[in-house]
Queue: 3 jobs
Job 1
Amino acid sequence: MKHDQLIYGIRAVIEAINANQPINKIFAQKGLKGELFKELESSARKNGISLSYVPVEKLNRLTRNNHQGVVAQISPVQFHDFGALVEQVLNKEETPLFLMLDGVSDVRNFGAIIRTAECSGVHGIIIPKSGAAPITEDTVKTSAGAVFNVPIAKVDHLKDAVFYLQSSGIVVTGATEKADEDIYGVDFSQPTAIVMGSEDKGISPSTLNILDHRAKLPLMGKIGSLNVSVACGVFLYEVVRQRKK
């Protein structure tokens, strides 16, 4: 049963998971029990879908229908298969440009990043299944509809995606203030993937350690960092600048 990009009811949500519906998040009533609910929890875990336990009042605000203690949010876009997306891009007569987001969790930042990615010619955005911002109405609005034009792939582990890109000849560069090199010393004319970290923690150390390059933005003021969507825009347009030479 669907209503405004929501699915409600335990069995309906399980069926949606099994049908590979693009579920952003599942909200479950605190204290919910039973074999059917255990099946839902197991399916959500196996498919990397975020599940939050909330008071019943939260579910009642989401829908007035008989939710049976479970409401799922559906993404307005279909996600792409990561491996197929990479192969598709590699077969183009263009220099690949991927964007990887490591824990960007604010939907408006996500939307702004997607908009810039579309404008700067990014071939695909890669996000982890867990911990990433969902694609909501706010994401769509902030992206100015660009979310429908840029392929987005979800992966189980971002590190594995980095290794896959590297093995495919893609040079992966992370945006981090911990870098010794600044953005203008990196060669973006070659096949490239740029990794942007979360708003508060940046790129996770385990991912940072396996990247080909780390690069920072020169900051002239007293503030130690830029908003992630702004920093992403600077990185992407340095790629554009170098490739237009």
Job 2
Amino acid sequence: MPNENFIDYVKIFFRSGKGGSGSAHLQRTAQDPKAGPDGGDGGKGGDIILKGNRNLWTLLHLRYTKHIFAEDGGGGSSNQCFGKNGKNAVVEVPLGTIVKHPETGEFFGEVLEDGQEFVILKGGRGGLGNVHFKSATRQTPRFAQPGEEGMEEWLILELKVLADVGLVGFPNAGKSTLISVLSNAKPKIADYPFTTLRPNLGMVAYRNHQSFVIADIPGIIEGASEGKGLGLRFLRHIERNALLLFMIPCNTENIKKEYQILLNELKAYNPELMDKKRMLAITKCDLLTEKELKAIQKKVPENITVVFISSVGQQNLQELKDEIWKLLVN
């Protein structure tokens, strides 16, 4: 399947390390057979840590990982020697990864920057050795503290693609072709109605060495917000985009109606998406005569920036980038 290498959702059982037990050792020497307690503290259990890695763009490397355990802390020993701290379990994830509870949906946090570390489960504290319990009235404590238990939880890691611009449209709207022309991305392209099966990211070069990231979101179909097609699975990626670029082919029978259907699907999925900046690209305009183009210009939605483009014919692509940049920076 074409989408086998794009994994944006995994469910994993995590367990942080248990703290090591404190030592109840009593020191005995030839000079002083009752020298007293000298038990050291136990080591701390390892944490479960997510770490951002900008070189990853999918959770594929975690696809078959069902359990991740951090190391337990070592026990304390004589001469007040501390136990070894348990090794942390560091899980590298792509930028845009969030953590949530599978049943309650509770949001634990997110990783947005390269190298950012986020502790999702803390390791248990090490127990205190018996040396801490010595007092004037208790000269020889023969007990120590056990280590604190670690934490364990089934958690969901979910990737939401980080991009400045998200392309929104029905299958075969020309999204993949546009991203292949504007950037170095190489999406699968076909001349029949099919939908991209995984998001494609591309870096678009702009004036004065500036750039922005564009994401080809898999095609939405009517009813996507209700779980039809692939739309529901990928609508979450749109939540990260600063600007939504709607794309509708020029040969669409009713452009306003199609635009409204797309808007309705986004609103049904998450009403907050209506607050995002929007613009509209009418695609495949190389198929039109000048007279037909003028006729279509009267049939586009009002109150939105509209650009008439052709990715294949390289028409108005610089104007498109200029309008995108204006909306991104303003």
Job 3
Amino acid sequence: MKKYVAEFIGTLILVFMGCGSAVFLGCDVPGGHLAVALAFGLSIIATAYVIGNISGCHINPAVSLAMLIQKKLKGVEFAGYVIAQVLGAIAGAALLKLLTAGFGLADLTGSLGANGVANAGGIGGAIIVEIILTFIFVFTILGVTSDERKGSVAGIVIGLTLAFVHIVGIPLTGTSVNPARSIGPALFAGGDALANVWVFIVAPLIGAAIASIVYTLVCRNKKA
């Protein structure tokens, strides 16, 4: 159970801090876009060095899917990870909802930082954007975690890569690359955010699967 509790806590932190930076700071103020991207990346760095040795610090169903494909995770574990991650994301979004609706703090996004498709040219554009961004993110994770010599810097590399993909993705979809991160805010935002949340579930999973397959074909040591 420690693995699942760790994934719950890690995903809660990611959603609260990442989406919270968008909710309370906004992306339209000078530097806001970069600050939100860094908040997501720094959340990964912070949690990686706390729960990384417990659960691997996936805190993302797309990452867990890639690890399942790589046979580093069993089917039952995968299900447990995803449940814990989604519940953690919902808890993180619930805390943001409490602060905005319960204590009157302004939500500058109007949707608890939920993802959207409009700025990406609609559903098709959002799907393509999310597949590409998730591919980059998961491909990097597979590369940096495959070599034990990189273990001391893995959390930093992964966190900076998440910030990296957010820099491009925030103006387009708000950047998901993580179905759990999208589900949490969408449940409370409702409306279009909830109606289109399937995009941010399906596309990251596709991107992660492609990244895992490409990594196996191109990068993984065949002798291993």
